[in-house]
User: Fold this.
Amino acid sequence: MKSIARLVDHIISRVNVNLKPIGRDVEPAVRQSIRTDKLTQYYAYYALSIDHPWYFRFQESNLGGSYFLGKCEVDRSVVLKSDIRGDELKPKGAVAYFGGLGTELYQDEIIQIVNSFLVKTLIHNNSQNPEIPEYFRILNTVAMHYSNIHGTTTEGAYLGAFATADLSVLHNCVLGDFAYVQAGDLSRQTIQSGRVWIHQPGVFEFDYMHDPEIIDRYVTFDSKGQLTGEFSDFVRERRSDFLPMYDSLAFESPVPVPESAFLSRYAVVKGESHLGDNCLVAQRACLENATLGNGSNAQENCFIVDSKLEAMDVIAHGGKLIHVELGEKVFVGFNSFLHGEADRKILVGAGTIVMPHTIIDALEPLDIPKKMIVWGYIRTQEDLASHSMSLDDFSKQRELRLGALVFNGDGAAFIKGFQRRIEHILQENGAYYDGNDATRGHAQKTQSVSYNLFQPYLAGEEEAMFPAIVVGNR
Amino acid sequence: MKSIARLVDHIISRVNVNLKPIGRDVEPAVRQSIRTDKLTQYYAYYALSIDHPWYFRFQESNLGGSYFLGKCEVDRSVVLKSDIRGDELKPKGAVAYFGGLGTELYQDEIIQIVNSFLVKTLIHNNSQNPEIPEYFRILNTVAMHYSNIHGTTTEGAYLGAFATADLSVLHNCVLGDFAYVQAGDLSRQTIQSGRVWIHQPGVFEFDYMHDPEIIDRYVTFDSKGQLTGEFSDFVRERRSDFLPMYDSLAFESPVPVPESAFLSRYAVVKGESHLGDNCLVAQRACLENATLGNGSNAQENCFIVDSKLEAMDVIAHGGKLIHVELGEKVFVGFNSFLHGEADRKILVGAGTIVMPHTIIDALEPLDIPKKMIVWGYIRTQEDLASHSMSLDDFSKQRELRLGALVFNGDGAAFIKGFQRRIEHILQENGAYYDGNDATRGHAQKTQSVSYNLFQPYLAGEEEAMFPAIVVGNR
Assistant:
């Protein structure tokens, strides 16, 4: 048997050891998501910048079409068309705080991916792992299409398509498709598809359930195990835009890029698009007739089409905007889908928070006021009544049942937590850069990035496997 | 000072320690041959095949535009647009023979390049190094444009443009432009430009001197230190053909390639070109309206333009053919320049040996019979009388003075030595492949080659330097 087949079997067995006891067999999902005969077509990309500590080691792995930045170790894993973005890894000596207690890192933090299968997965480390802050671990884990891992420990877990594990400590657990969790230790739990659950024990709990029939329309696996639904249709239609970009080594930006902004050479930019100062457009983002005002950012797997972002807007990983206009400092959370049309635009006022995994699929023009929090599933102006609230009002809540949302706890702490995080993202991304070093962020630090490209073996026993490679000194 | 400037200074000092005592200062040549501001534009390529042992380590180096295959270590060196082809490295346990005495290799042979500056240099190891056969060493060496190193030890040496160090043990010595040596230990010697010298002490000595004025016309450095002359004019004109090839990751052969043949994806093929079975076309070779009959090969830096090779023809590194027709099993040595025109073709009969560094620049149609040896500088049919001889007649020579050639020793041993080497090359290149594993050569073994691409740092103190990288296990 070829090494790649042995590797896939090995990963399945490692994950199933954790998940079969809670009723999940990952084998069908893994087998359907990989065509080993196609794996030789992809390169892996490793970005080097002068501002990030780098070290990269992988062995007995397949890294097809994947992108890495920062310190990574990948062993016995399949990392397929995934983005591993390690630009917020903590350096040696940094102090990490957990529940107010500080502890110093004895070495640079490192992303460790072992015995895992990641397909089109986004890993971005802003880790909150009290168990061992030196390692951002993804062990014995299967993560499906367009899922996001934004914090570890992720051990023995399954993440469905478009699922998000945010800041969290997970363990052997199952996240359904389009589920979002920010809820700490989920050992031996199964999170239903479409659930959006943020739980800070003793402080607050936000719990929203998307209607399963609606989730089916947007994200589902068909009887053959193929990902279908409107999200993947949308993404698939634009796939061909990315191909020429990956074939060419040369890069010439199709639009002017201000000196303080960053446009990844692995992002697609089409039509009449404009970038303001301090903007950040990450790899695998796609802009088409998009205007990004100063300090705005489009993270990995974002699509911003026929849309206008005034300034300081944050589109988190996988956010999709079509015919949308955002006021200043709007936050659009992970994998949110804001789908307007030319004759039914979606307007979002300044300071509004669009919760992760929100679907706004407009049947009529929508006008969302400023300083709102918006969640769930919205198609009409009327839907907003039961799926949004002013930040001020939400801050006053202690117990709220509104449609499919249950909120308990300190509404003000919840809103403030989000706002702090948005400020953190803007700072980290360099949105506030004023020419001084102290204000530099990703947009400035990633400017002079260069790339190493690795191709797998094309034949023989090791076909589709990559050679052991070490870049840099750990 | 930036690291790249420190590195260049360091190399100059290391080489000059060896060469200043014999009157050579390499500093001007090195400084003129490098534009450190351009170095960030190039990638380094490392080829992985399933048939060659691979291991690659480099540190504190610049590898701009360079290509590697096989086991290499590169430390504190500038390797600029060079080809390091290690597909004849001896494996551990192989027995190497020197003067009839055999010795077993205690580890795989490895190419070591340390404190060296190589620009457009071709390294191809078929090493004959009795000093330590486990290492193919290029230490403290400066090798200029289109020079060839085809054997070590090369320590403390300077090779001029289009110079060739063949099979040899060199030490601190200077090879002038377009000089060819196959002469063992040359410590503290200076070899004049245009000398073609093959010396096997006690057996034979072939010594030809090109007229210095003629060499000036073909290879010279101008007052600004820029390489000029007809050779570099010829190469420079075709440079743009190579650019799109290096920019693209995808490869589709412009001509049909038989299953048993190899066409490098880094070779240029234009016009009406054809490849026969078992052909080998190496990277940086250029074919234009070229027909390569079965078993023929075009090695690195070859140009075969408007020409036809019948079968089993060997064009060694840097050989250039324009309007040439070769019969079967013709050998064209290193850096030979056979320049015909549509109305004055150069015909070369079967079994003929064109010596390395031969210039045939036809003023009229030329017809070279079969089984000849040809050398020196030829422009007319009449010139052939004093620059060629039948192999049979040459084999009878013990002492020969003919024009600028002096030959002493065993003519038969000299001719047989060449013929054995041609057979070795054909075998190694897979020209005799018949479907059996035992007859596989480079053309078959290099089929499924994949590439790793490395890009240097683009800014900062380390600009133009590459990160330390290790591929594979030594």
Notes: DSSP finds nine helices and 47 strands in chain B.
